[in-house]
Amino acid sequence: MLGDADFSWMRNYGTALYMRGPFGRLFLFTVDPRVIQRLLSAFEKGHLAVAKWRDIIAQNGGIPVVLNVHSWLARITLDAIGAGNYQMSMDYDLGSLQGNENELAKVYENLFAHAHYNWGDADIVFLDVVGYLPEWIIDLLRNSPDKRSKQMSLLAAGKEGGKDIMSLLVSAKHWSATISTEDLVAQLTTLLLAGHETMASTMNWLFYELSRHPDIQIKLRKEIIARIRREVLRYHPIQARTTRTAGQGDIILLSEAQKTTDGKTITEVAVEKEQRTIVSFDAYNRLTSIWGEDAHVWNPERFLNDNGTKTKTGLGVLSNLLTFSSGERSCIGWRFVILEMQSTLCALIPNFKFSSPPGNVVIFRVASGLMLPMDVFL
């Protein structure tokens, strides 16, 4: 299950360790706050979903129904990004919740859920080999005619003088010769990929945990509390890891001394030029030295006092969480995520009760670029 390897490494070897990857390449794996610090320098769609769900329940004679919540949340977030009342929206009405036919909605429907998540040896080797391909081959794959056609249709939706993110990007290209079409496509792709399925999957894990904790669901109905939102971000970070490649060699001090497998005590780690470092958001968010001995328990009450941590690290954009990364390259849309989560909770929780589906269903965590919930029927 996703995270098990990270948790095991952290438990057995401490907060930093070296490992060999494909072709013998040396990696540094870390959840040490000091090392990470060095490396990482209003929505209406929820209410529309309420109306849709009420119609479905009414058609079922008022009897509780089983819904694919993840599919609905994906539509909520996609529509919010498309036409939300927020500067990072695209002013582009996708109509996913209304069931409208839309090319972009089709492309992004369960984009990551349809990806093959059970990587084999050949897949792992291929991903590493890609890094050694000539740049012209990468450009050829990236700029295939079919892909370019779909990307350019996005840019065509930008409006003259508009204040949405798409129009602002198109205007920036018009006034600056240094911004290329490829730059615009890259920016829009980042916003769509980072903002759509990530939000939907985070919300999906939130409602899953609420279905397992009906007592907290009752408390939440009385008051929409920020600590529940923070705890699901801590416990289920949608991006499990990130990597950085060193531009030059360096010696980085550890937050606390740790013992190596041969019994030596170290207080620093060496990073060679062009060496990759893996930062585990998953394991950091469950580090007992930061979150306490119950770090592996979903417990929103931890955020009752201060920021919920046993030790302040100064990492992250919110409550010492690494979920949105940290430093200059932290998630540009994290406030949008927080606001939409709050809005969706306010719309759905007072109107519906959530519970696990009947039958012996096991939900576990897997990675497909992002962490997704998967149903396993036994």
UniProtKB/TrEMBL annotation:
Q: Which cofactor does it need?
A: heme
UniProt pathway annotation: Secondary metabolite biosynthesis
Q: Does the keyword Transit peptide apply?
A: no
Gene3D superfamilies assigned to the protein according to its UniProt record, in alphabetical order: Cytochrome P450
UniProt keywords (A-Z) are: Heme, Iron, Metal-binding, Monooxygenase, Oxidoreductase
Q: Which GO terms describe its molecular function?
A: heme binding; iron ion binding; monooxygenase activity; oxidoreductase activity, acting on paired donors, with incorporation or reduction of molecular oxygen
The UniProt entry, under InterPro entries, shows:
Cyt_P450, Cyt_P450_CS, Cyt_P450_E_grp-I, Cyt_P450_sf, Cytochrome_P450_monoxygenase
A family per Pfam:
p450
Query: Binding positions for heme?
Result: C331
Family, per the entry?
Belongs to the cytochrome P450 family.
Supply the name of the protein: Cytochrome P450
Annotated source species: Sphaerobolus stellatus (strain SS14)
